[in-house]
Write a structure and sequence with these properties.
The protein is of the alpha/beta class. The chain folds into two domains: about 130 residues, Aspartate Aminotransferase, domain 1, CATH 3.90.1150; about 230 residues, 3-Layer(aba) Sandwich (Aspartate Aminotransferase, domain 2). The protein has 14 helices and 13 strands. It has a seven-stranded mixed beta sheet, with helices on both faces. Strands 1-12 form a two-stranded parallel ribbon. Strand 5 and strand 6 form a beta hairpin. Bound molecules: pyridoxal-5'-phosphate.
Length: about 400
């Protein structure tokens, strides 16, 4: 049987990570992998999460099954975090999932069950894994104009034109904040215009919220989701806790669905449970329990928020330093866009073969499409990277 299988295409970023690990050069710089890094290049466990894990260790008396939609306390706490503490929950359904990826896959299955003919429109470019996650549920995907490489900003007019041409009943994937791979986000006025267009054209917003708190601020990064929730009859949100709680490998996130009526929300909740049953039966518990403990405890929540704030501020400082260094190297203001963008990622213009030259000549690892993880920089290597980038143009 298995002799019929063609080898899977290796994952680009995972293979860059592997090459980086094997590189013996002392001055190597990794800007490829999409995890937050501190000044020492590490991705530490957030203190509040560690404290919550200690409490869990002391207090947990059983590891028996929780159910297909996971920990109800976690679902409630995360819904409050994303939609706001005062949000009306009567039309909201939430299901814990293994990471934002699991949430995206559940939502794709839900859409497929509700409207198999729906096309999901994704930004050009988008996170590479959106394509297999959403299309493996059997849905058709199509790109809409999003990023302008010349300005480093959103091609908003072209985006609105493309969205306006989508068929009624189609789904529009939007990155809630910190667009991956470009760092170019919608501003508040643009979110409002997109919201009005989706409403007028009968399109379902699907917001991927994987970096809440790492862009402009915890509340600010939820603006898009919260605005759409006030005007849209229905929407879907895939939340990841991987980055903002730094629980990557423990796998936690949630699919949160807004339905037109409370009665429909009840049906959606049941359907999410059935989908989970068919995919992984029940989501892993550990990180969800830790995140719940953090969010439910005022002290831990404040400590988590302060650490998240400092992570975000570090990224913002690195963005400013990088823009300055690249502007200096190019004797221009061409890299000002890096400061206007948000989150860990930016996409730099690369000449043909430049990613390879950066690796071969300077031990700098970046994704060949020009995406860099700004958090991979620090006070020592920002200037080094800017010089290497200029020299390999
Ligand atoms: C845009 C985007 N969405 C979703 C995810 C899902 O993350 P995870 O499944 O690790 O929670 C990621 C992770 O890199 C991402 O960049």
């Amino acid at each position: 049987m298995f002799e019929n299988l063609a080898p899977a295409k290796p994952d680009l970023i995972l293979s860059i990570m592997q090459q980086f690990r094997e590189d013996r050069r002392a001055n190597k710089i990794d800007l490829s992998v999409g995890v937050y890094k501190n000044a020492a290049g590490g991705t530490p466990i957030i203190k509040a999460v560690r404290d919550a894990e200690a409490r869990l260790y002391e207090s947990q008396e059983t590891k028996t099954y929780l159910g297909t939609t996971g920990d109800a306390g976690f679902n409630a706490a995360l819904t409050g975090l994303v939609f706001g503490a005062d949000a009306d929950r009567s039309r909201l359904s939430a299901a814990q999932a293994p990471g934002g990826s699991g949430a995206l896959r559940m939502i794709a299955d839900l859409i497929r069950a509700a409207r198999p003919e729906a096309t999901i429109h994704v930004p050009d470019p988008t996170w590479a894994n959106h394509i297999p996650l959403l299309s493996s549920a059997g849905l058709t995907l199509k790109s809409y104009a999003y990023f302008d490489a010349a300005t480093g900003a959103v091609r908003f007019d072209a985006m609105m034109r493309d969205l306006g041409a989508a068929r009624r009943g189609d789904v529009i994937l939007l990155h809630g904040c910190c667009h991956n791979p470009t760092g170019a986000d919608l501003d508040a006025a643009q979110w409002k215009s997109v919201g009005t267009l989706l409403l007028d054209r009968g399109l379902l917003p699907l917001v991927d919220l994987a970096y809440m708190g790492l862009g402009v601020g915890l509340e600010e990064d939820a603006f898009g989701v919260r605005h759409l929730a006030t005007i849209a009859p229905e929407m879907a949100v895939a939340v990841s806790c991987s980055k903002n709680f730094a629980v990557y490998r423990d796998r936690v996130g949630a699919a949160i669905i807004l339905s037109a009526t409370p009665a429909q929300a009840e049906i959606v909740t049941g359907k999410l449970g059935a989908i989970a049953r068919s995919l992984w039966s029940m989501p892993p518990d550990h990180a969800a329990a830790a995140v719940r403990i953090v969010l439910e405890d005022n002290g831990l929540r404040a400590s988590w928020k302060a650490e998240l704030d400092s992570m975000r501020e570090r990224i913002q400082t690195l963005r400013a330093d990088l823009a300055l260094a690249l502007n200096r190297q190019s004797n221009s203001q061409a890299f000002d866009f890096i400061v206007k963008q948000a989150g860990m990622f930016s996409r730099l213009p690369l000449t043909e073969g430049q990613a390879q030259r950066l690796k071969d000549q300077h031990a700098v690892y970046i994704v060949p499409d020009g995406r860099i993880n700004v958090a991979g920089l620090n006070a020592e290597n920002t200037e080094v990277f800017a010089r290497a980038y200029a020299q390999t143009r």
